[in-house]
Q: What sequence folds into this?
């Protein structure tokens, strides 16, 4: 009786244990009273808590001390290695287990899946089926989350239907919906949803999130409306998915409606929801609302700060992004790889020798130098600063080179006019790297453009779909058109424009109008392109300037007067350009035709002294 009471007491104490020190004190008392060797239940509870609070070494010692191990002891022990990411040791424990139940199989399958070994997990699942162990609904849920082929998913679905478990289990039904949405088969996802005997808010979330995540934003919003009319209350996950759908369809009005519901339901304090709201307003071109949401939040969290920093960089408010980053550091918020990637994308717009290098040092200090996303951002940053050699050093030292890394380096060489290096790296990609995508081919065509390799560029364009499996986009055609225009082949370039889905874009219009052959060339073409640019960019001065020069060349003075009158009526004025240069820790901005600016007196005084020295040396300066 006393032993039973002690076991109950220690079981209660273990249930309320919240720290490693408390666990060690209770564990010591259990050993002292001799209960650890006689009560396997208490020993298993200690082992379970060591797996949560302690180190892997402490968990191993706790397991070794259990005298009468049962299947629960082995399952907990195997889960220790799974939780610590040591899948090799977990599999060794699985193979050594004297007996296994469905929990054992589920744990090793989930371990392989979470470690990125989906094929191994599928092999274990197949072996489970042949071992006479009946999979649980949790087993099917795990397997459906990592199947790479929709055919495998359909096979599992058929097996579930045969066993009568596909429609009766909410967990399995939700997993099937998520699997079909992930592979773009929305008809099948809706079929499962409609045939389920019982649904819950997670079922709706799976359907809405699947539609939103995989390119069907309108459908996600519509399903949310149906959910509301069906008397299902959305949770924070639902709201975040619908906010994401709203910025996907660029519908600010709908986004504001959902945001109003967010405030009314009290979900704005949820980090995921508040981050989604900031992103939604930013993507819908309402950065002021994003700032308002951020300022109203009494939350300084990594996810929220990342969303705001990303919003600033997307709206070319790089100074605000840097300032917020510094404030977040002062709040002891550790930057993530996403934070650093966003900041590196705008570092080249300031003082690359200072801020870019400082960010690179921070990357190394935080241990992110081997992260593929951060490394790719470093490559892009150095490339934009004209330091392609530094970018190549980072690329060469990367442990894992994904396609984003290859694309960043190929584009980096292309941006810096290193055509040969870009094409050579593309050749290496074809031999050793992943298959190229449309971004890769954009970089290659850009390299051909800078190298004036028209024939080679056309060759790549013609082989894109047949050899590389990439359908040409407007961006690819724009590179080819630019190449031909710069080569003086304007008429041939115009023939390339016809396949473009959205017609001739503003960039091509500017290229055509800026080419030397336009003044003496086809006036009808000049007028047509100028009208298109006015349609796309009403405040652009270029189309009016080109038309005036074209009409003056041909003596059509009435047309010149008409164009100038239109310019006056539309208040079209020349935009003053500017340039800047970073010196030490200062940024000097020079506007066009500007005589006085910050520090300008000293600059022009120095310039006058230089001109005087030049004249004293006997050189003649002509302005």
A:
């Amino acid at each position: 009786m006393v032993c039973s009471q002690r076991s109950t007491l220690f079981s209660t104490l273990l249930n309320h244990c919240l720290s490693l020190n408390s666990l060690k004190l209770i564990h010591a008392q259990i050993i002292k009273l001799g209960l650890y060797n006689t009560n396997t239940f208490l020993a298993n509870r200690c082992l379970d808590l060591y797996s949560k609070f302690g180190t892997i070494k402490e968990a191993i010692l706790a397991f070794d001390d259990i005298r009468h191990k049962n299947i629960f002891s082995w399952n907990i022990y195997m889960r220790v290695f799974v939780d610590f990411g040591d899948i090799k040791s977990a599999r060794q424990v699985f193979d050594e287990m004297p007996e296994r139940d469905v929990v054992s199989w589920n744990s090793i399958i989930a371990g392989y899946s979470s470690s990125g070994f989906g094929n191994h997990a599928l092999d274990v699942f197949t072996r489970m089926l042949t071992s006479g162990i009946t999979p649980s609904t949790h087993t099917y849920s795990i397997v459906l989350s990592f199947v790479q082929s929709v055919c495998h998913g359909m096979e599992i679905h058929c097996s579930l239907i045969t066993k009568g478990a596909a429609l009766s289990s909410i967990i399995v039904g939700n997993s099937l919906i998520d699997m079909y949405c992930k592979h773009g088969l929305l008809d099948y996802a809706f079929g499962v949803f409609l045939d389920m005997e019982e649904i819950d808010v997670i079922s709706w979330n799976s359907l809405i999130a699947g539609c939103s995540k995989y390119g069907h934003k309108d459908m996600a919003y519509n399903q949310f409306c149906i959910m509301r009319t069906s008397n299902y209350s959305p949770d924070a996950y639902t709201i975040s998915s619908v906010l994401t759908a709203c910025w996907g369809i660029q519908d600010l009005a709908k986004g504001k409606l959902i945001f109003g519901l967010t405030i009314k339901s009290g979900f704005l304090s949820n980090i995921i929801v508040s981050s989604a709201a900031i992103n939604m307003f930013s993507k819908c071109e309402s950065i002021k609302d994003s700032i308002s949401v951020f300022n109203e939040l009494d939350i300084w969290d990594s996810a929220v700060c990342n969303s705001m920093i990303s919003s600033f960089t997307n709206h070319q408010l790089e100074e605000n992004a840097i300032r917020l980053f510094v404030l977040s550091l002062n709040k002891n918020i550790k930057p993530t790889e996403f934070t650093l990637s966003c900041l590196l994308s705008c570092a080249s717009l300031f003082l690359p020798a200072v801020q870019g290098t400082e960010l690179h040092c921070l990357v190394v200090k935080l241990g992110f130098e081997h992260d593929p996303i951060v490394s790719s951002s470093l490559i892009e940053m150095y490339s934009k600063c004209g330091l392609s050699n530094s970018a190549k050093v980072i690329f060469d030292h990367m442990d894992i080179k994904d396609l984003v890394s290859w694309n960043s380096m190929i584009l980096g060489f292309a941006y810096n006019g290193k055509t040969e290096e870009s094409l050579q790296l593309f050749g290496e990609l074809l031999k050793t790297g992943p298959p190229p995508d449309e971004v890769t081919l954009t970089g290659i065509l850009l390299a051909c453009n800078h190298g004036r390799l028209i024939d080679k560029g056309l060759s790549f364009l013609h082989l894109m779909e047949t050899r590389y499996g990439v359908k040409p986009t407007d961006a690819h055609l724009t590179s080819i058109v630019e190449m031909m225009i710069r080569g003086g082949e304007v008429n041939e370039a115009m023939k390339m424009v016809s396949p473009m889905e959205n017609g001739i874009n503003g960039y091509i219009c500017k290229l055509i109008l800026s080419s030397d052959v336009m003044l003496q060339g086809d006036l009808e073409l000049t007028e047509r392109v100028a009208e298109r640019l006015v349609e796309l960019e009403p405040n652009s001065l270029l189309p009016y300037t080109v038309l005036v020069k074209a009409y003056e060349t041909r003596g059509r003075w009435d047309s010149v007067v008409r164009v100038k009158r239109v310019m006056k009526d539309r208040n079209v004025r020349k935009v003053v350009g500017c340039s800047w240069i970073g010196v030490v820790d200062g940024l000097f901005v020079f506007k066009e035709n500007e005589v006085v600016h910050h520090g300008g007196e000293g600059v022009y005084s120095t310039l006058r002294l230089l001109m005087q020295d030049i004249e004293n040396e006997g050189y003649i300066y002509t302005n």
